Amino acid sequence: MKKIFFLLIVIAICSSFQKKKQKPALPSCIKQKIEAYKKMPKHDQPQNVIEYEYKGKKVYYVTMPCCDFFNEVYDCSCKLLGHPDGGFTGRGDGTLPDFNKEKKKEKIIWQAPK
Fold this sequence. Notes:
The chain is an alpha+beta fold. It has three helices and five strands, in the order ααββββαβ.
C-alpha cells in the first residue's frame, strides 16, 4: 500500500512539471481564407496554406491551383506581402525576390483534399 501511495505521489509531482504545448493561435483572417477556399470548386482551390518564418515574422504562403497563377504570401493580419513565384514566368511579381531563400520553419496549415 505504501508503494502505491509513493508511486502516485511521484507521478503527480512529475506530471506537474510537464508543460502542455499549446498550438499558437492561427490568425482569424487566415482561418477565414481557408474556410473560403474550402467552399471553392476543387479545380479553383489553392493547393495548400503553409506557415513560414520570414525575416523573423510568421507569414502564410498560399499555393495556387496552377502554374500560371501567382502564389501569395500574407502576414498575420492578412496583408498581402507579395507573390514570390508563380505566374507566366514562374518568378512571381518581383516583390519578394528573397522569399524562397529566406523562408524557414515550414508548417503545413491546410491542404486541399485530393
